[in-house]
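Workshop exercise sheet. Pairs work together: one partner reads the sequence aloud, the other fills in the structure field after running the prediction. Swap roles for the next sheet.
Pair: D.N. / O.F.
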Amino acid sequence: MSEPLRKPKQSPESYNPKNKPEILNMMEESAGKFKMNNAYQVKTANGGSYIDNVPMLKWGEWKDNTYCGCMTALFDAAGISVSYEELMGLSGVCWQIIMRDDWDPSSQMPQNGKLCEKNIGDALGIDVYSIGDENQIAEQVKKNIDSGIPVLMVGGRGAPEWTLLCGYTVENGQDKYFGRTYFDCQHYKPTKETIENQSPIVPENEIFTDNRYFCFNGFPGWVPGALTRFYDKKCKPILRKQALKVSLETCITMFEQKSTESHKFGYDAYDVLISGFELNDEDYKKTCGNDCYHIGSLLDARCAANVYLELSVGLLDERNQTKLAEVAKLYKNITDNMLAAVPYNETTPVFNGTPDFTTATLTVAQRRKDIAAALRKNKELEREARVIIKGILDHWDD
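Structure field:
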């Protein structure tokens, strides 16, 4: 996509991924269902059921990656204690940077590049799985909802982003599904009065329960056989130190990915951003749409990397503890460099619909120059971090 940022109500339609993401580490289904300590009550209504009180998802809370943000809400509902930053680290999303030459926002979907998604289930003792048959997907969704465990899927409503399925009902003999997406806040008119009163832009017949869950008219979602995920089975967890090693190994390999026809990764992705922000005004407006979203996504990821590493330092021996703390500090510097160039509330949070995209100032020439300079500096800090991480991995068992 090449146009500049659109009005909030239009942004879901601006997502236009040209190719299906590369799906790595697909999980095998295995036996061993288990009951989780659910945090929310399951209620029945109109031939279906729903998980009550799952909070609205939105950008602007330093949980800006829809994949890890939805998982955080899912695990919270299931009564599993794990933070957003830990999920960003365990999955490897916190190390990632992906760009398309056309700056389409779909590039930020983590599954476009290398990840260690299986590492999340391994660390938490959950056998995450998908189902190929769409009819079986519907039945398993109902079982999960009835047991109080939301279901992760892509494109429940609007754009092909990660969403959280929270309930189902029957209307005129037809099953309907509903839940939370990061775009929900855009379905309310961006004025103080209408936000406080939650005045919907979507039709009332597409709003379900007192929670005001929105209809998942995209069910069963985008590539459902691979991207609809279930979390109701257990497995033996691995040690968190082992999970940290998998994540750090992924930190190295994802920056070694070769560019594809669609996407650029790592340092090449940095170059796409830098060259874009250094364009003249006219070319910038033609090329660099969704600039706020790309910078905010990167900012959120590196902030999560810093937190994840600080949480993980105690897992290592004394020598590697010191080195991992150095890497954590580098990611803190990367985050601070970006924040010095642009405030967080002018990046990804503008996708909420309030303030309107027109209040964001990334299009101002001096702001773009500052961002480009910060990105150049951060690109070198990324290299420095990976040298230290490689040293940690080389001496992991010393």
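Discussion prompt: Residues 1-35 have pLDDT under 50 and may be disordered. What would you look at next?
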